[in-house]
Design brief:
- The protein has 223 residues and is α/β, with parallel strands linked by helices.
- It has a single domain, classed as Alanine racemase (TIM Barrel), CATH 3.20.20.10.
- 40% of the residues lie in helices and 18% in strands.
- An eight-stranded parallel β-sheet has the order 7-6-5-4-3-2-1-8.
- Helix 3 links the parallel strand 2 and strand 3.
- The mean pLDDT is 97.
- Bound molecules: pyridoxal-5'-phosphate.
- The site of pyridoxal-5'-phosphate (PLP) has 12 residues, from strand 8 and helix 9.
Amino acid sequence: MELQHIQQAVKRIFRELPSGIELVAAAKTRTAAEVKAAIEAGVKILGYNYIQETQKIQKELGNMDVKWHFIGHLQRNKVKIAVNLFEMIETVDSFELASIINQECQKINKTMPVLIEVNSGREPNKAGVFPEAVVNLARKIITLSNIKLEGLMTMGPFLDDPEQIRPFFRETRLLFDQLSQLKIPGIEMKYLSMGMSDSYRIAIEEGANIVRIGTKLFGERRL
Ligand SMILES: *Cc1c(COP(=O)(O)O)cnc(C)c1O
């Protein structure tokens, strides 16, 4: 999309988002010029799904005032690189992955904020922990010194009508509240990341405070 259109789209979204809601610009497949235009229009957080693409774009962009969230499926053998590239990993879905992140963070003396990814649709072949397993995973994660659990993330199932995703957002929100109320020492439930281009309004109604938006900022993906 033309850079000017991207900037208009970014500004439109910022005008629309209620205060307290953070925008993650989901930037997979976009050029450095497109991403730079979005940052110049006000984007403060970029979401990336792939390590190699992140390295490439970070190199091309150089030093810019922006934070990086990992929102894809993190392979074990990429964790070592990932902990250097990102300010938050939104997609922790096993204790094993959390442990590897913790180990790599210890080596570089860093504490990584993470979200647990919830498989709110309970879809067998999808990433994320089933809702009923989240509290248990949270209790295990807090034993890790170099990880800070800060909330939950969910994708929800892909459905034609975005309204049909509402119950999955709602269940994730209830889980978020439940975890907050448990007041587990070491957990600070700050972020609930849910909603994409076609569902962010519903997600916000259901309590999201991070929305991850790609298409609506950058246009349809060419791929
Ligand atoms: C691509 C992506 C988004 C944004 O999707 P759009 O429909 O383009 O807004 C959000 N979250 C994740 C995890 C993604 O991979």
